[in-house]
Amino acid sequence: MSTLPMPWLLALAIPIALLVDRWFGEPPAAVHPVVGMGRFLALFGDRLCAMSAKAAFLGGALAWTIGLLLAALTAWAIEHTIIAGLEPWLGGWRLGAAALLVGLALKPMLAWRMLRDEVGAVETALARSLDDGRARLSRLVSRDTRALSPVQVRETAIETLAENLNDSVVAPLFWFMVAGLPGAAAYRFANTADAMWGYRGRWEWAGKWAARADDLLSWIPARLTGLALIALRPALLASLRREAARTPSPNGGWPMGAMALRLDRLLSKPGHYTLNPSGTPVVAGDIGAAQRLAAGALLGLAALLALGAAALRGAFAPGLGLALILGGPR
What we know:
The chain is mainly α. The protein has helices at 9-24, 33-42, 45-49, 53-86, 92-106, 112-128, 130-137, 150-197, 208-229, 237-244, 253-263, 286-312, 322-326, and strands at 267-269, 273-275. It is built from 13 helices and two strands. A hairpin with a 3-residue loop joins strand 1 and strand 2 (273-275). It starts with 8 loop residues before the first helix and ends with a helix.
């Protein structure tokens, strides 16, 4: 029995997951695995923050590790069950059915449609009133939006779109390419932990491990996202490196800086950073332009990551055995 179709299992699952996301959006919260991750993390919040600095750091790291293992092991069990049950190495309908099921399981780990729609809704709300725009933006960001100007509301929405293009879509797909469903689930848990715990102040020590782990896991995907956003303008690479260094985050500046350069707009968070300071202020219509740029970058990266998933599992060089090294199916 030939095993040649197997390297394409994960590659086929990527476009399936993106199509399911486009057609159906998010699953109900009651069964959404990322919501479940959030509930797990919420169990420890008050206890961790009440501890001493050392105990909070160790407790946060331990809870994070347990949660990551639970997420990865659950995803591994789902992936293993699909492969063992359908035997996709036999090819044909078995490969297609396995790719469909793996793609369905991957879908909750990414959220492109929701991100695009929520950012677009900010512009729609702004067309009604500034207060409506501020209120809609507050659904997306943790900062206080009550005093933002229309320009600042649009800036923040575009920054959120760019940064979360990586966090909510590209990075889960990257780790899926590397390690299948367990990789995507592990990253999504790490990113959720950073979103809930990765703050200074009350969470300074309890969330430090989560914040640093997310920085590490997002390092390569964030740079891929930034490069994809400027792909048609390679002359912007030197400028992108400069802009990426302006943000406190080691990763967020790459997609946000790339978006600022491609739009040729100034993007800023007062008191924290200013990206592309020589750019002109954001205007109505720029959110739509940013959505189109993000969609194009995602399309290119999805194709690249699908090919990467196949290549890592020997599709173009059978016998390399990389699937065994990386833990993905062969």
